[in-house]
Amino acid sequence: MRIAILREHSLSPKKALLDRQRSWAQRIGAVSDSRGYLSSVEANLFQPLSERTRRAFSNGCGSELIDTFHRPAKMKALHSSAALAVNVFDYWAERDSSQVVVSLGLGMAPASLAFEAQFPTGLEGNPPNLDLALRFASEMVVGMESKFSEWLTPRSPRKEHFKAKYFPEGQSLWANSGLRAAQELAAALHNGEERFRYLDAVQLLKHMLGLANTHRGKSALYYLFYEWPSEESSIHRAELKRFQGLIARDMPFHWGTYQQVFQRLAQLVEREHGQYIRYLRQRYFADAV
């Protein structure tokens, strides 16, 4: 174990995270290729996809379940953010979701869970996919963006720009949807006056626009990421706090780590759902208390 820990510290944070996933696969006898893809989607999941979730990914535009000419299905990857979200949340798609909602810090009311949720922005083209949407009886909708290892790669300054359609002449799309602070931030990012190195603020602003356009006054955005202690993590957390402060008056913005959610969830459900919790602990959360 000491050798493994020393080896992790000698790698870049992203490579260390992926190396841990490969080690998990080896322990259970799963074979991955040189890029970290398993032989099937099923081999990468705790349980088969629920029918509703399978339909959502099949209808999506992300090639999560289908091999392409260039690469295997995305959800076959050990580093797949979608697989992480499915392994944690799809288990509750057909169960009482109250405990997982509590673990997210969103109260106690049960909610329906839907993957690959789209909230149209009012613009042409496909709206960006949110990894998960939680819908409550109160008509409140919480859109969740999930990250595994993606945030550990620094963003190019070119990635901070929006397509021209987000800034039509004479219109302020975010402000028109009640998001004045988001409008200011979007413009600053687009003009190069603001920059986030590890947080994909452009993506989050697009999600805010879609949520406000379809559920104005009854929506919130949740950013959930897999923590990996590092210098990158400190910057990422500081950027999350800065983003939250800049858009706070527009829309509730929650953020947290998968580790925090797992610890709360394990305390609540491990006795009744031990196999599920053991899988998550052994694969993703071995360091969790």
What does this structure look like?
- With 289 residues, the protein is α/β, with parallel strands linked by helices.
- It has one domain.
- Helix content is 40%, strand content 12%.
- It has a 5-stranded mixed β-sheet with strand order 1-2-3-4-5.
- The model is unreliable at 1-7 (pLDDT under 50).
Number of domains: 1
| Element string (H = helix, E = strand) | HHHHHEEEHHHEHEHH
Question: How large is the radius of gyration?
Answer: 19 Å
- What portion of residues belong to β-strands? 5-15%
Q: Unreliable runs, pLDDT <50, ≥5 residues?
A: 1-7
**C-alpha termini separation:** 17 Å
**Morphology call:** globular
Largest sheet: 5 strands, mixed
Helix fraction?
40-55%
Total strands: the figure is: 5
Number of helices: 11
Mean pLDDT across every amino acid position: 92
Spatial order of strands in the largest sheet: 1-2-3-4-5
| Class inferred from helices and paired strands | alpha/beta
